[in-house]
Amino acid sequence: MATISVVVPAAGCGARAGLSGNKILAPLQGRPLLWWTLRALLLSVRQPAEPSAPPQAAQYLEIVIAARRDEWDQIRTVLSLLDHDLSCPLQITEGGCDVNSAERQSGDFPVRLVEGGETRQQSVGNAVRHAPGDFVLVHDAARPLLSGELTARVVQAALRDGAAIVALPVSDTVKLVDETASKDGPFVVNET
Questions:
Q1: Of 112, 115, 79, 116, which Cα lies nearest the Cα of 97?
Q2: Where are the alpha helices (DSSP H) in 130-175?
Q3: Are 81 and 34 in contact (CB under 8 A)?
């Protein structure tokens, strides 16, 4: 049976959202945004998407959250809320130490906090280095609208094909521009 580690990059700073801190800690419907994302992931990995769905040929090992170390206490608070709200016992560890099966409490789901990087790519890289699974499922901490059905579909595709991503067709018009070629304005459209 294949094993899966879930990686959640969460080391952002909220600059594009216009926030003074990390957007994953901003409140959304009475809970931090990260609570909603982790809730969706935990529900996805702890139960099948629907009763008629075929069982997955994989076991989820843990969730690895890559975050700034100075936010770990706040993330632990989010995890405590999840533990309480979902009645989902979580076993939280820090850094690269593995939780061996003898130390894992029956029914507890392991969550590991690791140091995030300056960029999303660095955060994912740091988390993947600590992820023991045969496969790694990466989901951005600021994307809470994840369904169990979508998670199951991407995992089944990865198990079948070796890798998979979730994507939607582009419905907007995309323009490639050159700022330096313009004489009359700030941009010149090079390609649609």
A1: 112
A2: 148-161
A3: no
Please state, in angstroms and rounded to a whole number, the distance separating the CA atoms of residues 38 and 95. 19
Residue range 123-147: mean pLDDT, rounded = 92
- Answer whether residue 185 shows pLDDT above 90: no
Phi, psi (deg, nearest 5) at residue 162 = 100, -20
Q: What is the pLDDT of residue 55?
A: 55
Helix (H) or strand (E) holding 76: helix 72-86
> Whole-prediction pTM value?
0.79
Assess contact for 177 and 188: CB atoms under 8 A: yes
Q: How far is CA 53 from CA 133, 148, 188, in A?
A: 23, 11, 50
Percent of the chain's residues with pLDDT above 90: 43
* E strand intervals along the chain: 2-9, 27-28, 31-32, 58-67, 90-94, 109-115, 135-138, 176-178, 188-191
**Closest listed residue to residue 95, CA positions, set 119, 72, 79, 61:** 72
Domains within the chain, CATH numbers bracketed: 2-165 (3.90.550.10)
* Separation CA 74–CA 174 (nearest Å): 39
> Which pair of tokens denotes residue 78?
């989010």
Asked whether residue 49 carries a pLDDT value surpassing 50, the answer given is: no
Q: Mean pLDDT throughout 9-23? A: 72
Distance, CA of 32 to CA of 70 (rounded, Å):
17
